[in-house]
Amino acid sequence: EITDNTIYTEGKYAISLLSADDAVITGNTLYAHELKGDEAVYIASGSGNTVEGNLPFTYTTNVVTNDTFYQFFIESGLLRAEVPYNQLIFQGEFSDLVSVVTIDRDVDIVGDGAVLNGIGITVSADGVEVSNFTIGGTLTLAANATAFNNTVNKLTVSGSYSVVDNNTINTTVSITGSNVLFNLSSSVFILPR
Fold it and tell me: Lesser CB count within 10 Å: N end or C end of the chain?
C-alpha cells in the first residue's frame, strides 16, 4: 500500500513497480519529469491493483526553501517550466542541492535570509532581478538583469544594460558586455581575498 505521500522523480514515472498484485496506490501527490497524478504510476505486471486519487503537484506558494527546492527546480538547477510565479522568495540556508540555480525566463528571485552555500546563480533571461542573497558561487547576469543587495564570491556580467547596485563582491568581477551600470554611490565593494 502506497498512500498519503508526495513523490517526485526525474524519470517518466513517480512510482514504477516491476510486479504487484492487489497493490493500493491512492491519495498521493505524484509528479515526475513527464507524468503526473495517476498517470505517473507504472506497474509492469500483476493484477487487482488499485491506482486512483493520486493528484499532480500544485503550487500554493512562491517561497522556496532547501526542502522544497526541487518543487521549483529540476535536478540540474534549471527553473521548472510549470512554475507559475513571476517572483520566487528564497528563505533560509541552501546546501547539498546543485552547483548553480539557473533562471531562464523573467522570474525575479529575492532572498529572505537566503544563503546559498556552494551554489551560484545564472540568469540567462532579460529583465530578471536578483536581490538580498549571500551567494557562495558565481553570480552570472544576462542582458538587462539587475543585482542588488547581494554578497557574492564572483560576479560575471555578460549582457548589456545590467545594473549592479549595492553588492559586496569577494574575489573577481568579469564584464564581457557593455553599458553595465555600477552604482558606486551605493557602495559596490570588491574585496581582496
Answer: C
Grid cell locating 17: 513497480
The mean-pLDDT minimum among 58-72, 135-149, 164-178 falls in: 164-178
pTM, two decimal places: 0.72
- CA dist., res. 187 & res. 53, Å (int): 55
